[in-house]
């Protein structure tokens, strides 16, 4: 079995659309305005037993506060139920 190479080029087909869906689901789940900044990042996961990539969702309510949550899996694999469950588990401060 080959180890995952985090530096290999990945197919990015459909990623922009998936990011917009995740942002929309986050806005719905948290009742956010369209003007609230939501950022979606795909990062390698280093934790034991974690899938090779995780999707991190950040909400910047104002310059002094930010909330975040994480879904295990690549951006293209994240569904609405995953986003809602991640925000529910994150609590009001949005920590993972």
Describe the structure.
By secondary structure, this protein is α+β, with helices and mostly antiparallel strands. Helices cover 28% and strands 27% of the residues. The chain has 2 helices and 3 strands. It has a 3-stranded antiparallel sheet, with helices on one face. Strand 1 and strand 2 (53-62) form a beta hairpin. Helix 1 (15-30) crosses helix 2 (80-90). The mean pLDDT is 86.
Defining traits:
96 residues; alpha+beta; three-stranded antiparallel β-sheet; 2 helices; 3 strands; 27% strand
Write the layout of secondary structure elements.
Elements: H1 15-30, E1 37-44, E2 53-62, E3 65-72, H2 80-90
Antiparallel strand pairs: 1-2, 2-3
Helix pairs in contact: 1-2
Summary?
The protein has 96 residues and is α+β, with helices and mostly antiparallel strands.
Rounded Rg: 14 Å
Class from secondary-structure proportions: alpha+beta
Give the mean pLDDT: 86
Count the E strands.
3
Described by its quaternary structure, the protein is single chain
What spatial order of strands do you see in the largest sheet? 1-2-3
Distance between the termini: 30 Å
Largest sheet: 3 strands, antiparallel
Helical content stands at 25-40%
H and E string: HEEEH
Number of helices: 2
Beta-strand content bin: 25-35%
Shape: globular
């Amino acid at each position: 079995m080959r180890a995952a190479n985090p530096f290999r080029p990945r197919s990015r087909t459909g990623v922009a659309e998936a990011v917009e869906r995740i942002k929309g689901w986050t806005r719905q789940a948290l009742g956010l305005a369209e003007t609230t900044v939501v950022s979606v990042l795909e990062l390698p996961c280093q934790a034991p037993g974690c899938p090779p990539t995780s999707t991190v969702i950040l909400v910047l309510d104002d310059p002094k506060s930010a909330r975040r949550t994480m879904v295990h899996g690549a951006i293209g694999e994240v569904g609405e139920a995953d986003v809602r469950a991640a925000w529910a588990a994150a609590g009001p401060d949005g920590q993972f």
